[in-house]
Design goal:
Length: about 100
């Protein structure tokens, strides 16, 4: 059934309002108003239900004709030696990892 979250699938499926919010375009409340105003399309079709489920790997979401892309997470691994503080200022003057 379109618009409902499939059960048992492990893909990045989110509600339309959440996709717009996570893209950094505005709050979920703002996204709901854009969807209700008819400014959002999924795969070229007008969607006016904020709770519409979107598969980020398959669906193309656009706001005012501009394509919205899902963001990728970036993980950073930092090395901090034992005994060092992660701070800009140590009142005791000890070793810091942010020199």
């Amino acid at each position: 059934m379109p618009g409902r979250k499939p059960v048992g699938e492990h893909r990045p499926i989110k509600t339309l309002e959440r996709v717009l919010s996570k893209a950094g375009l505005g709050s979920r409340t703002e996204a709901r108003s854009w969807i209700g105003a008819g400014r959002v399309r999924v795969n070229g079709k007008l969607v006016q239900t904020p709770d519409h489920w979107v598969d980020l790997e398959r669906d193309r979401v656009s706001l005012d004709g501009k394509l919205i892309r899902g963001s990728r997470k970036v993980y950073l691994l930092l090395y901090k030696p034992k005994g060092y503080l992660t701070t800009y200022k140590d009142p005791e003057g000890g070793p810091r990892s942010t020199t």
